[in-house]
Specification:
Layout: H1 16-25, H2 31-55, H3 70-92
Length: about 110
C-alpha cells in the first residue's frame, strides 16, 4: 500500500449489497487498503488478459519440445498448481480463514 503522501482521496458509489458485504468482511479502518489491493489485483488481471491476447500463438512447438503433448501440458500445469499450493500454505500458516479481530472504534466485528 502506498504511503500517505502518495495517495489521493476518491469518492465512489457502490451498490448497497456490496457495501454491506464489505462492511461485514473488512476490518474497521481497513476499507481503503482493501479496495486498493482489490483494484491492483483486478488491474493486473486485465493487463495479463490483454498480454495473453496479444501473445496468443507466439509460442512455436519446436521452441517447447517439453510441451508437445496434452499430457506434457497437464504435467506442467500440475507443477505450477503444486507450487501455488505450497506458497499458499506458507502465507496462510494453518490454511484456515484469517480471523478478524474486534474493532475498538466501532461496533463491527
Amino acid at each position: 500500500m502506498p504511503n500517505k503522501k502518495e495517495t489521493e482521496k476518491l469518492s465512489i458509489t457502490l451498490p448497497e449489497e456490496l457495501v454491506a458485504e464489505l462492511r461485514a468482511t473488512v476490518p474497521c479502518g481497513k476499507l481503503s487498503a482493501f479496495l486498493a489491493e482489490a483494484a491492483e489485483f483486478y488491474l493486473a488481471w486485465r493487463r495479463q488478459k490483454a498480454a495473453l491476447k496479444v501473445g496468443f500463438g507466439a509460442s512455436k512447438d519446436e521452441e517447447h519440445p517439453d510441451l508437445k503433448t496434452p499430457e506434457d501440458s497437464t504435467a506442467y500445469v500440475r507443477t505450477l498448481r503444486e507450487a501455488d499450493e505450497e506458497r499458499l500454505t506458507r502465507f496462510e500458516g494453518d490454511g484456515g480463514e484469517q480471523q478478524v479481530a474486534p474493532c475498538s472504534v466501532c461496533d463491527r466485528h
